[in-house]
């Protein structure tokens, strides 16, 4: 089977920035069948009534990295999606929620500072592969939580149409 290329790419303008603004967690399996033509989620199909994304605001030290793994010998290719989150300030409510996230296999939507939304673990969910709860040693050190979520998918994290995001986002947030 031939895998045909479709286009080239010029060097883009220097008008984007790095960093994650927020991560949104939803229970695995509640999104239903995704409508995702051309790699962008435009609808959550027959989503269950329980579909709700819970927003975690982040600033600095948070990132989404996707590693392409391809094997000519095995004829396989997949994308390892790794989300690193830093949640500042230790508090009991956040710790209790993180205990649930660590046990679960959620879908995670990521909002970057360019206004893009990406869906991590769209089909297989994302597992917590590590993290820390740290008080810090010096006055300027992190007192908070770090969390690493990992997903393996046959496609990179799907773009999500921003117009559908807020219809499924909970307004409930920890305000410690």
Describe the protein's architecture and organization.
The protein is mainly beta. 9% of the residues lie in helices and 38% in strands. The protein has 2 helices and 10 strands, in the order βββββαβββββα. The strands form 2 sheets. A 6-stranded mixed sheet has the order 2-10-7-6-1-3. A 4-stranded antiparallel sheet has the order 4-5-9-8, with helices on one face. The termini are far apart.
Spatial order of strands in the largest sheet:
2-10-7-6-1-3
Number of strands: 10
Work out the helicity level: under 10%
Provide the succession of SSEs. Answer: EEEEEHEEEEEH
- Main sheet, how many strands, which sense, barrel? 6 strands, mixed
Given as residue ranges, the uncertain stretches (5+ residues, pLDDT < 50) are: none
> Radius of gyration in whole Å, from Cα?
17 Å
Summed up, the helix count is 2
What labels would you give this structure?
10 strands, 6-stranded mixed β-sheet, globular, mainly beta
Short description:
The protein is mainly beta.
Task: Produce the secondary structure layout.
Blueprint: E1 20-26, E2 40-41, E3 54-57, E4 63-71, E5 76-88, H1 92-103, E6 107-112, E7 117-120, E8 127-134, E9 144-153, E10 158-160, H2 162-165
Parallel strand pairs: 2-10
Antiparallel strand pairs: 1-3, 1-6, 4-5, 5-9, 6-7, 7-10, 8-9
């Amino acid at each position: 089977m031939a895998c045909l290329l479709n286009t080239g790419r010029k060097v883009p303008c220097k008008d984007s920035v790095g960093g994650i603004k927020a991560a949104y967690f939803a229970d695995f399996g509640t999104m239903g069948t995704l409508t995702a033509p051309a790699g962008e989620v435009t609808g959550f199909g027959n989503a269950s009534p329980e579909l709700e994304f819970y927003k975690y605001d982040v600033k600095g030290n948070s990132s989404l990295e996707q590693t392409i793994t391809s094997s000519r010998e095995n004829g396989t290719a997949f994308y390892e999606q790794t989300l690193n989150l830093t949640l500042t300030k230790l508090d009991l409510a956040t710790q209790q929620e993180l205990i649930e996230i660590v046990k679960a296999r959620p879908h995670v939507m990521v909002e970057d500072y360019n206004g893009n939304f990406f869906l991590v673990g769209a089909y297989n969910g994302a597992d917590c592969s590590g993290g820390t709860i740290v008080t810090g040693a010096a006055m300027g050190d992190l007192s908070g939580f770090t969390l690493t979520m990992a997903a393996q998918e046959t496609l990179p994290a799907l773009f999500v149409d921003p117009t559908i995001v807020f219809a499924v986002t909970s307004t409930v947030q920890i305000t410690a």
